[in-house]
Amino acid sequence: SPSLLDQLEFLKQAKFPIEFLFAENFETMLEDIRMRIRSLSTAYVITSRLDNDDIISSDYIDMVQKLYKPVPRMIINFHRGFEADVERRILKKWNRRFRNQFLSMLEETKAVELITVYGFAHWKEVPGETILNDETHPMWVYTRHGLNYSVQAINAIPMVTTSVLKDFPALQASFKISKFNTLLYAVRWFPKTILRKIKNK
User: Fold this and answer.
1) CA torsion angle for 151, 153, 155, 159 (degrees, to 10)?
2) Which of 47, 75, 113, 166 meets the CB 3.0–4.6 Å disulfide criterion with 128?
3) pLDDT by residue (tens digit) across 45-100?
4) What is the pLDDT of residues 147-188, one digit of tens each?
5) Residue 167: which of 140, 136, 133 has the closest Cα?
6) Which residue blocks in the chain are alpha helix, DSSP H?
7) Number of helices followed by number of strands (H, E) in the chain
8) Which residues contact 9 (CB under 8 A, 6 or more apart)?
9) The pLDDT value given to residue 128
10) Which residues are bridge partners to 90 per DSSP?
11) How crowded is residue 89: how many other Cβ atoms within 10 Å of its Cβ?
12) pTM value?
């Protein structure tokens, strides 16, 4: 079977340089990232979180760089994205998902304490002094599968077509929505949405 590196060869065709690095554990990886940042000649650096089972939009990096401001410890958070339940074949849309795992963090390269986006748990209080919550088009896809079925509020909007995945062409071509499972989810989602609207009035 092909090695992991062979499977990742396609990444070398990206429009920006990619370097493959290996670490023994998370702490070793984090220290290596910090060491590399310290050696940069730029005043600021942006680190972005991406898990190996999730997806970012084709213009994610461009958008992060457009939102760049020379503000120490600024967090960039894209609210909008999708959730692809690969086992139940349900596609959902999030319009407001705070503290998601697709955060980016801007820091000074010579800061006394370098945190990086991997230096804190995204579901807890983030250490940024400024948080920029951007409401552009959906910028990410959170993949739900057997290993990450955490209990979550039923907030995401059920989708009935993959046409909304135009910024994620590979997923759009491969994801098949289950109408039956989507209906079951919608039956639970709709009354909870109405209750939330009543409470917010």
Assistant:
1) 20
2) 75
3) 999 988 877 899 989 999 999 999 898 889 999 989 999 998 899 999 999 887 78
4) 555 555 677 899 999 999 999 998 999 999 999 999 999 998
5) 140
6) 4-7, 26-38, 60-66, 169-174, 179-199
7) 5, 9
8) none
9) 66
10) 85
11) 15
12) 0.83
Element (H, E) at 38: helix 26-38
CB atoms near residue 159 (< 10 Å) = 19
Q: What is the dihedral of CA 114, 119, 125, 130, to 10 degrees?
A: 40
Q: Per residue in 97-145, pLDDT tens?
A: 877 889 999 999 999 899 999 988 877 777 767 888 898 899 999 888 7
Give percent helix, percent strand, percent coil of the chain, each to the nearest 5. Answer: 30, 20, 50
Centre a 10 Å sphere on the Cβ of residue 144 and count the other Cβ atoms it contains: 18
Beta bridge partners of 184: none
- Based on C-alpha coordinates, what's the Rg of the chain? 19
Strands of the sheet containing 140-144, edge to edge, are 55-56, 140-144, 81-85, 90-94, 157-159
Cβ–Cβ under 8 Å, residues 60 and 140: yes
Element (H, E) at 185: helix 179-199
Which DSSP category does 40 fall into? Answer: -
Is 58 in contact with 138 (CB distance < 8 Å)?
Answer: no
1 pLDDT higher than 50: no
User: Tokens 């410890």 label which residue?
Assistant: 73
Number of other CB atoms surrounding residue 46 within 10 Å = 18
Tokens of 26: 């998370």
Query: Do residues 111 and 72 lie in contact, with contact meaning Cβ atoms separated by under 8 Å?
Result: yes
Paired tokens of 64: 């992060």
